[in-house]
Amino acid sequence: xxxxxxxxxxxxxxxxxxxxxxxxxxxxxxxxxxxxxxxxxxxxxxxxxxxxxxxxxxxxxxxxxxxxxxxxxxxxxxxxxxxxxxxxxxxxxxxxxxxxxxxxxxxxxxxxxxxxxxxxxxxxxxxxxxxxxxxxxxxxxxxxxxxxxxxxxxxxxxxxxxxxxxxxxxxxxxxxxxxxxxxxxxxxxxxxxxxxxxxxxxxxxxxxxxxxxxxxxxxxxxxxxxxxxxxxxxxxxxxxxxxxxxxxxxxxxxxxxxxxxxxxxxxxxxxxxxxxxxxxxxxxxxxxxxxxxxxxxxxxxxxxxxxxxxxxxxxxxxxxxxxxxxxxxxxxxxxxxxxxxxxxxxxxxxxxxxxxxxxxxxxxxxx
Amino acid sequence: xxxxxxxxxxxxxxxxxxxxxxxxxxxxxxxxxxxxxxxxxxxxxxxxxxxxxxxxxxxxxxxxxxxxxxxxxxxxxxxxxxxxxxxxxxxxxxxxxxxxxxxxxxxxxxxxxxxxxxxxxxxxxxxxxxxxxxxxxxxxxxxxxxxxxxxxxxxxxxxxxxxxxxxxxxxxxxxxxxxxxxxxxxxxxxxxxxxxxxxxxxxxxxxxxxxxxxxxxxxxxxxxxxxxxxxxxxxxxxxxxxxxxxxxxxxxxxxxxxxxxxxxxxxxxxxxxxxxxxxxxxxxxxxxxxxxxxxxxxxxxxxxxxxxxxxxxxxxxxxxxxxxxxxxxxxxxxxxxxxxxxxxxxxxxxxxxxxxxxxxxxxxxxx
DNA sequence: TTGTAGGCGTTATCAC
DNA sequence: GTGATAACGCCTACAA
Lengths: 367, 367
What we know:
The structure is a homodimer. Chain A has helices spanning about 1-15, 30-35, 40-45, 55-65, 75-80, 95-110, 130-140, 155-165, 185-200, 215-230, 245-260, 270-285, 300-305, 320-330, 330-335, and strands at about 85-90, 115-120, 140-145, 165-170, 180-185, 205-210, 240, 265-270, 295, 315, 345-350, 350-355. The first copy, chain A, is α/β, with parallel strands linked by helices.
């Protein structure tokens, strides 16, 4: 009785007017199949772009079009044992970079079936791995993206492989296999920036470090040292102070450098928040910028444009990295016909953004 | 044959050692049911907190615990026709507020089964409604949250009701039924701020508007006018200029006000980005802040602390609003045993954050 | 209060 | 290349 219930109903309507089997309910592949005169499985094959006869495909696609059929994501998720979701794991922080990255991911998946889920986790927590595993186990996402400093942990990558979850690790250096990495050339671009600084006559260059344990901090410091060496300048450890990527730590670092007996003429901070802090420390001391002190940052945060003077900085192409990470993660869903995942780059170039905060060294002060 | 296949297998193992029916597969409620000696439906009832005998519940919960069973979200989603997801619709912008709000939502759902999906949409697009409808139709979320300016459109709310999707509209004034609204008291707090400004001796108060069509902009302007009226001050339309909530529009607005023949001694900008722009315009003109000009903003963005001088502003409790919105949206999942959705507030108080940018009016300049 | 049968919309298996 | 039938893991309706 049940088996026969639908068929008659359908024959009355669907062959003429596209109507769902039940009033109020959405269309299913069964409707499409009947309308196109094929089996459910054939419709499924079209949805999943499996190889088939062109004519059949065209027929089904026409049916989908005229019926306005939209596949049910939940049902596919159940059958696939995968959710149509990308998870972005971020270390719980107020980082504007995480948001920029997120925007990049969203732009890449905007027209796809995919959704982005954001999951903040605490890298200090002893339950970090368990938290991530639970979330992945629940959501069964198509892929996961890890931002620094989470991305720097190899054990997270290994866990994903064990759980059979695709992932991409994002950072300031290659952290995993090419297909699982997106990174920026922090070291090289910092070297280039410092070269510019030296070319402007500066000899005493202060450096504010990022937090220890962050790969980005190490890379940027390495680039700094490399540039000094290349320029034949000594590395003065007294001009290198610690920071934690926070505005407040930038204020402290700036204070330490500026109150020293022989302060630098320019300070490079390993990110913009700290550069803004250094700027504040300079203002507090009545310095005129960039006349008395030049400041250079890294990130190209919104704040870089909004402080006075506006900050010469490195544009960290984090949004592009987000889009790239998404495309590497699910190439079959996000890449067009002609594109090939193997052609996707893994490294994205940072660029120097000249603004107001970097000036020439004063005559008397250089050297 | 098929029906019997599982049972014998299970009886051998599950009663002694908790093992999934198939090697490598996850446990299902069937496993839990057999282990606890009840039916699948009973386990389902426990998962959904339906009323049942305490002893049975305890037995099943013990089984879930010892087996480490985690329900399959996709299967539940398919059966419920609802995904365990909250969607946050944001107008595509670089707003730091959207991210703060997001953090609030995430904190509220952190320990639940729910995930947060973020969906940027373009409020200018003619397809706005269709875009949202498509996304809701695909994801079938447990609820949707709309941030300004999307939240100000009644048609979006009506569409959600038609689609049977719960929603919350967030804004600077009540926009919908209490149970579907979360808002802040923008008007009142601006009135209070302006009262403070007047108390400091200022009489010529500049005002930078938000974009027309934004409810928040109207509310903040209304609060401003109200305060002037209450103080017995005239409203000088020449001191009120337009802005778009952007840094650049703040620079232009600041320039317009400061280059006028008789400039104000203090400028209130309707958000912090514009206040930062006004600050820049003042710096460019060589003004000393707050001696020559006081500036007050609204939002308490990160930039408010990082510019020089730091910005006296209104703390817009957007993260709290995010957490509140989530809890109102799915109270049965996010509220504790003793809590009641009816007790949740709808309005969140903004507070004034005194920093450096607001000073007393100079003797000669006041009036 | 608990259990049984059937369905949610899709994909996988394995014939044809 | 295409189709019938059985999963996928849970919930709803209804029966006991």
